Amino acid sequence: MTDVHPAPAVEDATVAEVTAATNEIALEDKSAEHVHGPDCDHDHEHDHEQQQALAGQRHDYDLLEVNGTKDKTTDPLVKKYFEAKELFAKANERLDQIPEGTDAELIEKHKDEIVSVTKDLMQAFLLDDKACLMNQRILKLAEQYEAYVQANNPEGTSTATADSEEEGAEQQTTVYTRDSVIFVIMILWSGGQYEHCIQTLTFAIQEFEPLKGRLLELRANCYMALRNFKACNDDFEEALTIEPVNVENHSTLGNIFYVTHQAQDALHHFKEFVAVAHPDSRTLPNAYYALSILTLLSAPSNATKKKSNQALKQAAALKEAQEYFKKAQEADVRFKELYGVMTGYNDIKRTAIQAFQIRTATRSGLISTDPTAALLEASELLKKSFKNPGISSCANCGRPDNVANQGRSQELKPKPLIKCNKCNKVAYCSRPCQIAHWNATHKNACKK
Fold this sequence. Notes:
- This is MYND-type domain-containing protein.
- By secondary structure, the chain is mainly alpha-helical.
- It is built from 20 helices and four strands.
């Protein structure tokens, strides 16, 4: 992972510059949850009921209110989400009472309200970014808050000095507070400017130690959006060492390792997750479905003798896989009780159902009640389809596709990963990644 020097990150992304740039960005509401954070292109005109309706379309937790089951779960993530949502909504109501503008007299008159609303909005964003919808009034508040910081130099203000990119120009000094930096992160995050967001998050991680775990999660999601899975995994792993209580990070890591065909790492993180996850976790069904597949995948092949070690291990793996699948179905039922809908058919759930609900016809034409033969067949098929991680993703950054495919027409055949032509065992998304990995480790392991 490449570290970014902190001072330029702040200088490159001051609140004034970011808000000015973001005013030109079309913010979109995706009407579905995803790792990128909330984007919205609607002009809300401070219509908070509309904001809440849009939020209801965006996140499963809002279905709890629709279904009348919000109080039937003690899931701490549900509690945190609604705390953030309520805090954000109330701050927006107070924001409506602050006139727009950045002239000195207005800022001085309303400085207490500007500071208070900014503090609550940033706290809500740090609690749960999915509960916070960006709008144009919040962007204008960012300008007002920066004007306040520059004029009043409040307690907690710091400065960062950076060299200007223009030749011969003097050094530039940026004045900032914790909330002004978090405001920049929120704006960049909401606008999908993940590369710039990573720069500012890197600075914030170095500056604000008490927020490090949460900021690492945000940066990990930025890396995920950019498909830099190695850096993403590193940040989630570090976040877990700082705040082990955030067990959903195990679930996220399990999904990333599963998608990049790293079965053992995926198995480890999903097991860590289900061991301590809240029984109402919205990601629990997926984790159990994944564990059923990964455990089935681990069943030894060619166990010919019934009581041999291989046969015993095979039988144990099949039994454990079936137990995981049963737990997945039970978690699915609980999910429907709470949210009023079943979990979606993603690749993991679809694969698990295909593997565990298959039945084999006997010679007499009857359906066998013993699933062993069918499960062993499914296990072998999974082993063939679960590709070598070194070939299915970049050995340096973990990206699963060639960077040259970005912006490439869908009508054109995608460019494959770049394989090492010496050993043919690893592949890369780009030439720079190939060079970096060669110099770091591969030159010592490659078959020459």
